[in-house]
Amino acid sequence: MLEYLTKQDPEIAQFIKGELQRQRNNIELIPSENFVSVPVLEALGSIMTNKYSEGYSGKRYYGGQEWVDQIETMAIERAKELFNAEHVNVQPLSGAPANLAVYAALLEPGDTVLGMDLSHGGHLTHGHPVTFMAKIFNFVRYKTGEDGLIDFDNLRAMALEHKPKLIVAGFSAYSRDLDYTKFKEIADEVGALTMADIAHIAGLIAAGELNNPVPIFDVVSTTTHKTLRGPRGGMIMCKKEHAKAIDKAVFPGLQGGPHDHQIAALAVALGEAMKPEFKEYAKQVKVNAKVLCDELKAGGLKVMFGEITENHLILADVTPLGITGKIAQTVLDEVRITLNMNTIPDDPRKPMDPSGIRLGTPPVTTRGMKEPEMKQIAAMILKALKNHENEAIKQEIAKEVVELTNKFPLYPEFE
Ligand code: DSN
Prior knowledge:
CATH superfamily of the largest domain: Type I PLP-dependent aspartate aminotransferase-like (Major domain)
Shape: globular
Structural class: alpha/beta
Bound molecules: D-serine
């Protein structure tokens, strides 16, 4: 691996090799991460990075587009088929730019948007006050109820009161599936447009494992690198009537040249997502998450949102164990288990030292791990958290992690 880079720039090569070893020897549980295939890596690291191609297939501002056009068209066609979409734009550079493009396409400055509160599982780009978007648009945020489900009566009351131009459904830390028809009914009642952000769950939707908002909603945005297991990137799917506005918002509204290497890699990943193996993968992601969730709950963590997961992730309060999310993340880093600290709904603690942790199963499932490994991982997590000041026990767990990861080789193609 990295034959030429190692000769020319050994320091950078060494850092990349170090990261490969980290990925191999750690248990990766950050629910927004995954391990792409070697063919996806090949397309991503290809000469497609050299090309400029502002515009869209058949309508570009630069010459020499005969291969770029075919790649972008193929990515679009594959996405249309997978998600049952009328129109697809594969040029957004990632999830946040995709969401900004949707707002730019559908809204005027000052318009009101109803989105899910960040601490209840939403996302920064759905209107958190720290974002630039929140300066441009008037975001109002809805929450989940006591039962962990979205309180649709309250959502409807808020929609009637605030008269949003757009209602956003979607999340980055919510463990339940969504009933998109309910959002749509409320939006229709108040004359609002609908946007779903499926960044976390696109792969599970593509595989038919979760509800699909694409045929129902006006616009659906996503990243391409989470459960969809593609390169880092973004994608917008929409009804034909919004196609022109979305395309214009992405380019020339917000972006310049598309990242053609990224789009080529996305086309490869979408091709993989069409295969029966990917359906099996998505099913196992959910099964694994459920097992992990049940074991952590039995071990004393307070799982949010009705104490269950219906997708790939779990949000859990660790304070019942007498620790904070920050301590949990640090201790688990020490034993080679990687996840992230996270706020819980209406968290009394601050985001840099919150009450919870967020974890999920897409990467470990890609490695081939199944129910027995989830039980073992949950046991290791609980042991580490309950013995967070005991160095000897933490060392034992770190050793067990390496033994487990060695049984599920990652990128054996690379030395
Ligand atoms: N950073 C992504 C996540 O971890 O969920 C969302 O932006």
